[in-house]
TrEMBL record, chain A:
Needed cofactors: [2Fe-2S] cluster
Cited Pfam families: DHODB_Fe-S_bind (PF10418), FAD_binding_6 (PF00970), NAD_binding_1 (PF00175)
A single GO BP: pyrimidine nucleotide biosynthetic process
Domain FAD-binding FR-type, residue spans: 11-108
GO MF annotations, alphabetized: 2 iron, 2 sulfur cluster binding; flavin adenine dinucleotide binding; metal ion binding; oxidoreductase activity
Keywords for this protein: 2Fe-2S, Electron transport, FAD, Flavoprotein, Iron, Iron-sulfur, Metal-binding, Transport
Residues involved in [2Fe-2S] cluster binding: C244, C249, C252, C260
InterPro entries in alphabetical order: Cbr1-like_FAD-bd_dom, Cyt_c3_hydrogenase_gsu, Dihydroorotate_DH_ele_sf, Dihydroorotate_DH_Fe-S-bd, FAD-bd_FR_type, FNR_nucleotide-bd, OxRdtase_FAD/NAD-bd, PyrK_electron_transfer
CDD domains xref list: sulfite_reductase_like
Name of this protein: FAD/NAD(P)-binding protein
Cofactor note: Binds 1 [2Fe-2S] cluster per subunit.
From TrEMBL, chain B:
Keywords attached to this entry: Oxidoreductase
InterPro entries: Hydrogenase_assoc-protein, NADH_UbQ_OxRdtase-like_20kDa, NiFe_Hase_small_N_sf
Domain NADH:ubiquinone oxidoreductase-like 20kDa subunit: 14-149
Superkingdom of the source species: Bacteria
Stored PANTHER family: COENZYME F420-REDUCING HYDROGENASE, GAMMA SUBUNIT, HYDROGENASE SMALL SUBUNIT
Pfam families linked to this entry: Oxidored_q6
A GO MF term: iron-sulfur cluster binding
Name this polypeptide is given: NADH:ubiquinone oxidoreductase
From TrEMBL, chain C:
Domain spans labelled 4Fe-4S ferredoxin-type: 226-256, 305-335
Keyword presence, Iron: yes
Cross-referenced PROSITE patterns: 4FE4S_FER_1, 4FE4S_FER_2
Gene Ontology molecular-function annotations: iron-sulfur cluster binding; metal ion binding
InterPro entries, sorted: 4Fe4S_Fe-S-bd, 4Fe4S_Fe_S_CS
Protein name: 4Fe-4S dicluster domain-containing protein
PANTHER family: ANAEROBIC SULFITE REDUCTASE SUBUNIT A
Length: 278, 246, 342
């Protein structure tokens, strides 16, 4: 048997340095990181990393930035458990562990020359932003672009500055909504599916990319299908418990698929009939 | 960084859980390097009301205890319940199934009128409790784990799976196969199944897991010969304060 | 196939030689059952057992295992850990070898896991044919009466002597160096076949009322069967079926820090898909919240999901889950037969 060396342990993180921290909302921060080795992370939009604070633990986090030439990458993190609380307490210059990138990615190549309909619910915008920014960085490679974003309430909207920018751009359509209005909110109120009546797509050339809380998928997929978008052009990203990132620990299993390896990004046709997937 | 100030308190209990802390021995010395213990009646004379973390042993069995506990809660940034009397009410709640006047006379005899009493309850029936270290007595390793977690600024991760997991890992023969009965299938792990490993059975001292299948456990106990009264007793021994035992 | 013969009277010498040169782990009696443990003297080693409490997977995937060692100071080195000293695992039944073979494939496929694989490589596995069948075993029906690989040596108790099949060169070297051997004749080989089929026949009393290759298909049509709910209503979510199972390998990963708060280890420990929080994430979502969904998952994993990966059922018929389950709902034979009935 050809033995893999222990130095190649898939559980061994690489050090990354926090180069910038931005408070996004009360409970979310954006961390810009750079691998200490100087190498780029090498991710494609839609992939995730396992983030470590040694002594606290490890958790899967989606990469929120498009691949960048200067080697930095961004993780937007909600403070919710021990690991995320620990990272929220860190400052610029601190070091964290990174494993990955892991998993499948959005159809960045396949969708070239085609139209894109992005549908993000809540912090589903975090992984989706990676692809949106990639598309905006390579705007000429893609056709029409529509971004729909829904949040529970105005205070849970993240990346506000960028949302405003997207709203002002002539070359994309950006629409958003909140389930429940709040102080100062003058935009749409209603669940994200209510935005579908406001858009027009050319279904045969549209790729619909959906990321949001589990409960959202069924309803958004119905809307996408109602627009005539073919099933195989619908992509979604699934959340599951993931400990190893390499298809071993068993937590993320859906049927014979491991979300950490076979996902998190799935083509709808590959999972629509899988029990427990949606 | 300034060391966190730690205080120990007790209410109705045998003080065995604090003894477990003292029994950490070498490890205790390491813990002491990381914290300042300002109050620990069982181990030292000094006392202070200025503390960050309070470990509180014992159940609340009389009205006048409530004020003292509320005072501790007000002083402490973090309040940790220590042992099953504090976390569950534990065996002190056995008295709740009797007439309180009867219990008072049974314990204090002709001096009963000098002592107040009321149905026993865990700390969180009186004040908010941040973390619970279960057990009768507590498990020293788990205590150390909680202290370390608090010092690292993280929430201690208390197990939510039954003792069976640790018991199987310890490669014990199932208690039921030995002709005894056991509360392990519904009891929160963290003890390493120490009682079964030592030849006894699980008494349920760490309380029930978050979602115990009490009906199935009752059926298993009945199948293994326990009467309805015995089954109730098994649940009441440590978790008499919970709904399951009523 | 190469067979050798060791007289019973020479067997203790062989074991003693192994003990003198290696760490030897083997089967020992415990409270009327059997466990794997360290063997310090030949008479401690038991080769006539029906089934052990937990499977020998604990040697390759320990219940708790440090993966990494680290210091909490920034920039410090993170060191992968492993104990891969050579050892001999003496007395593994074919069904457990079959399970180990499956685990080998799981931990080698895709991104290989050196922590598992190096432990596995460090072990010399000496198999032994069962001389007794545990009451709930059904390994014969699972095609696990014999295995053709996964062992360095395979012992069969022939009464006066053992027949030893050589599985690998490592096994041959071990045998030639430490045992007093006699050549086995074709008669011995025939006798071994007879003995094996006799014990297999006893085991066959338990099994499926239909061909086991139909199990994946059966499951495909059983997702909404009432049995999941009905059986799982008795499930204690105690994880016993997971812990004792030789083909369960799910694990959790967590950090443990020393009391000096300066050093720590990242450890993995066995997890179980029957446990309440198995599929729960930090946001509070639990992707398998009900007992029934967890109970069903286990059978689908053994009989369907892993089948698609291994092209084999991930159950070897040891029956440990069945004998360990207090409400007696974990037995694959009972469950699959009931499902088949409809």
């Amino acid at each position: 048997m050809n033995q893999p060396m222990l130095e190649d342990s898939p559980y061994l993180p690489k050090w990354a340095e926090i180069t910038r921290i931005e408070q996004l909302t009360e409970s979310e921060k954006l961390f810009e990181l750079r691998l200490v080795s100087g190498e780029p992370l090498g991710h494609t939009p839609g992939q995730f990393v396992e983030l470590s604070v040694m002594g606290i633990g490890e958790a899967p986090i989606s990469v929120s930035s498009a691949p960048a030439e200067n080697g930095v990458f961004e993780l937007a993190i909600r403070k919710i458990g021990n690991l995320t609380t620990a990272i929220h307490g860190s400052v610029t210059g601190d070091r964290v562990g990174i494993r990955g990138p892991f998993g499948t990615h959005f159809p960045v190549e396949e969708a070239k020359g085609k139209d894109l309909l992005f549908v993000a619910g809540g912090i589903g915008l975090i992984p989706l932003r990676s692809f949106i920014r990639f598309v905006l960085d390579h705007r000429d490679d893609y056709g029409e672009v529509i971004v729909l974003f829904g949040a529970k309430n105005p205070s849970e909207r993240i990346f506000l500055y960028e949302l405003e920018q997207w709203g002002n751009r002539e070359d994309i359509v950006y629409l958003d909504s909140v389930d429940k209005s709040g102080p100062g909110w003058q935009g749409n109120v209603g669940v994200i599916t209510t935005l579908f009546s406001k858009i027009h797509v050319d279904p045969s050339r549209t790729f619909c990319i959906v990321v949001g809380p589990p409960v959202m998928y069924r309803f958004v997929i119905l809307e996408a299908k109602a627009k005539g978008i073919p099933d195989r052009q619908i992509f979604l990203s699934l959340e599951r418990k993931m400990k190893c990132g390499i298809g071993k620990c068993g937590h993320c299993q859906i049927n014979h698929l491991y979300v950490c390896q076979d996902g998190p990004v799935f083509r709808y046709t590959d999972i629509f009939d899988l029990e427990e997937a949606l | 960084m300034e060391k966190p100030r730690v205080a120990f308190f007790d209410f109705a209990s045998c003080e065995g859980c604090q003894l477990q802390v003292i029994n950490l021995e070498e490890d205790l010395l390491k813990v002491l390097e990381a914290v300042d213990v300002v109050t620990f009646r069982e181990a030292m004379k000094e006392h202070s009301d200025n503390y960050d973390i309070a470990f509180v042993e014992g159940a609340i069995t009389r009205k006048s205890d409530e004020e003292r506990l509320k005072g501790i809660r007000a002083n402490a940034g973090v309040l940790v319940a220590l042992g099953s009397c504090a976390t569950l009410g534990g065996i002190t709640c056995l008295k709740n199934f009797h007439d309180q006047e009867y219990v008072r006379k049974l314990v204090y005899g002709d001096k009963a009128s000098h002592y107040e009493t009321y149905p026993s309850r865990p700390l969180n029936a009186v004040v908010p409790v941040d973390f619970k270290i279960h057990g009768c007595p507590i498990n020293r390793d788990e205590f150390a784990m909680v202290v370390k977690a608090l010092l690292l600024g993280k929430n201690p991760e208390i197990n939510n799976f039954p003792v069976c997991v640790e018991c199987k890992m310890a490669e014990n023969i199932c208690v039921f196969e030995k002709g005894m009965t056991c509360m392990g299938p519904v009891t929160r792990a963290g003890c390493g199944a120490c009682c079964v490993t030592e030849g006894s059975f699980c008494w349920g001292c760490r309380g029930l897991v978050d979602d115990p299948n009490a009906d199935s456990q009752r059926e298993v106990l009945a199948t293994h010969g326990l009467s309805v009264q015995d089954i109730l007793g098994s649940f009441r021994l440590y978790t008499g304060f919970s709904e399951v035992a009523k | 196939m190469e067979l050798q013969l060791i007289e019973k009277s020479d067997h203790d010498l062989f074991v003693q030689n192994l003990i003198n040169n290696y760490q030897v782990e083997g089967v020992k009696p415990k409270d009327g059952s059997f466990i794997y443990g360290s063997i310090k003297a030949p008479e401690e080693l038991c080769l006539d057992f029906d089934c052990t409490l937990i499977s020998p997977k604990k040697y390759f995937l320990p219940p708790k295992e440090a993966l990494l060692q680290f210091a909490l100071t920034p920039d410090s080195e993170i060191t992968p850990l492993i104990e891969n000293d050579p050892f001999i695992l003496f007395g593994v039944h074919p069904y457990d070898i079959k399970a180990i073979n499956q685990m080998d494939r799981i931990f080698a496929r895709g991104v290989p896991d050196p922590h598992y694989l190096q432990r596995r490589e460090a072990a010399l596995v000496i198999g032994v044919d069962p001389t007794a069948v545990a009451p709930r075993s059904f390994w014969a029906d699972m095609g696990a009466s014999t295995v053709s690989e996964g062992f360095d040596l395979m012992f069969t108790d022939m009464g006066e002597h053992f027949i030893v099949e050589i599985g690998t060169n490592r096994g041959r070297n071990l045998l030639e160096e430490h045992a007093k051997l006699k050549p086995a004749t074709t008669d011995d080989a025939r006798e071994r076949v007879r003995i094996r089929s006799r014990i297999s026949h006893i085991c066959k009393k338990r099994g499926f009322a239909f061909p086991k290759r139909d199990i994946p298909k059966l499951l495909e049509h059983s997702w909404n069967n009432f049995l999941w709910e009905e059986q799982a209503s008795k499930c204690l979510s105690c994880g016993t079926c997971n812990i004792v199972c030789p083909t369960c390998y799910c694990f959790d990963v967590e950090d443990h820090v020393d009391l000096d708060l300066a050093h720590g280890e990242r450890i993995r420990r066995w997890d179980g898909c029957l446990l309440q929080d198995f599929a729960a994430v930090a946001t509070g979502e639990n992707f398998r919240e009900t007992r029934a969904s967890r109970y069903r998952h286990r059978f689908f994993r053994k009989g369907h999901y892993l089948f698609e990966i291994l092209d084999d059922l991930a159950c070897v018929g040891c029956g440990r889950c069945a004998s360990g389950c207090l409400p007696d709902i974990a037995d694959p034979v009972n469950l699959f037969n009931k499902l088949k009935e409809g």
